[in-house]
Amino acid sequence: MTESLAIRKFSDLANPTRFLALAERLLPWMAGLCCLLFAAGLYLAFTTEGDYQQGDTVRIMYIHVPAAWLSMMCYSVMALSAIGTLVWRHPLADVSHKAAAPLGAAFTLIALVTGSLWGKPMWGTWWVWDARLTSVFILFLMYLGIIALNRAMDDPSKAARVSSVLILVGFVNIPIIKFSVDWWNTLHQPASVIRMGGPTIDGEFLRPLLVMAMAYTLLFFTLHITAMRNEIWRRRIATQRRLAARTASREV
Amino acid sequence: MSHAFYIYTSYGVTALITLAVIAWTLLDGRARRREMAELEAAGIRRRSSPPVTEGKQA
User: Fold this and answer.
1) Nearest to residue A139, comparing CAs of A225, A72, A209?
2) I need a surface site. Which of A108, A214, A242, B48 has the fewest CB within 10 A?
3) Contact present, B33 and A226 (Cβ < 8 Å)
């Protein structure tokens, strides 16, 4: 009984009109909370101590690591949506992965650029083709490919089905990114926060990192819901224009 | 602050990309709202929309 109620509630949300109404109510609160978290995160990022070895460059971690996490989380959200497209043929799932792709590309670009800017003073090089950096670069190219594929086709449902297959094939890259530092000998350090046995970094660095991670996550969901709303509107406008053109041609 | 160039450039680039994505999303939403208002003004409405005036448009 409870399960059927939960499924019904989820189905209700999957209705685009109800989704739009919920988005309208949620977005101002999400945006406000996101600003507060960013203010707190940035305050902590510039007031906490520097590392005894890395000095102040540790502050780059507070933007680099959350961006890298989000780049993978965004792709995972897209993979779940792709399943929604291929299994249930749900239009909201199409809208979800189409809207998420540019956001994922932006977060991946931030992770690549800030990683490079952190690498130069700490590693002595802007870039190396090690397994972690290369797999994240491939993720960035995947995002660009998915965006291009979505824009290459006029029929949105056909574009969604084709890009869903590409998203699911590309999902193999996500565990490769995560475990690349364990499977291969990389210049990039192994995991120090999300790992078996708990984080290995000091609380002084962990606090700003987690606040910034929450701010980034909320920013992603706020922008994702906004972009989904825009895409629903775009499709409705296209349908209305098509119907109006058909009606006009019938009248002539 | 040590390595100020690398730190401020990182934060600057991050702010630039983030603000660009936020602006693009908001401007896209504004453009769609305007398009919907234009359609509404031209009397083109969704079939499922409730009638607004004298039930003429459905």
Assistant:
1) A72
2) B48
3) no
Whether B10 and chain A come into contact, CB under 8 Å, resolves to: yes
Q: Which residues contact A84 (CB under 8 A, 6 or more apart)?
A: A90, A92, A93, A96
Q: Would an 8 Å CB–CB cutoff place B46 in contact with chain A?
A: yes
Q: At the topology level of CATH, where does A27-245 sit?
A: Four Helix Bundle (Hemerythrin (Met), subunit A) (1.20.120)
CA–CA distances in Å: residue A172 to residues A150, A177, A196, B30: 20, 9, 22, 37
* Interface A-B: count of C-beta contacts within 8 A: 87
* ipTM here: 0.88
Q: Give all strands (DSSP E) within chain A, no chain letters.
A: none
Q: Is B20 exposed, middle or buried (0-12, 13-18, 19+ CB in 10 A)?
A: exposed
Choose the closest CB to A57 out of B7, B21, B26: B7
Q: Across all residues in chain A, what is the average pLDDT?
A: 88
Using pLDDT thresholds of 50, 70 and 90, give the confidence band for residue B53: low
B29 vs A55, A110, A229: nearest CB: A229
- Cα–Cα distance measured from residue A5 to residue B42, given in angstroms and rounded to the nearest whole number: 41
Write down the residue that tokens 């940035």 correspond to: A42
Cα–Cα distance for residue pair A171/A119, rounded to 1 Å: 27
Residue A125 CA to residue A132 CA, distance in Å, equals: 15
Supply the DSSP symbol for A55. B
Q: Enter the tokens of residue A10.
A: 């989820």
Q: Which of A59-63, A93-97, A115-119, A237-241 is the least confident region? A: A237-241
Is A60's CB within 8 Å of B32's CB?
A: no
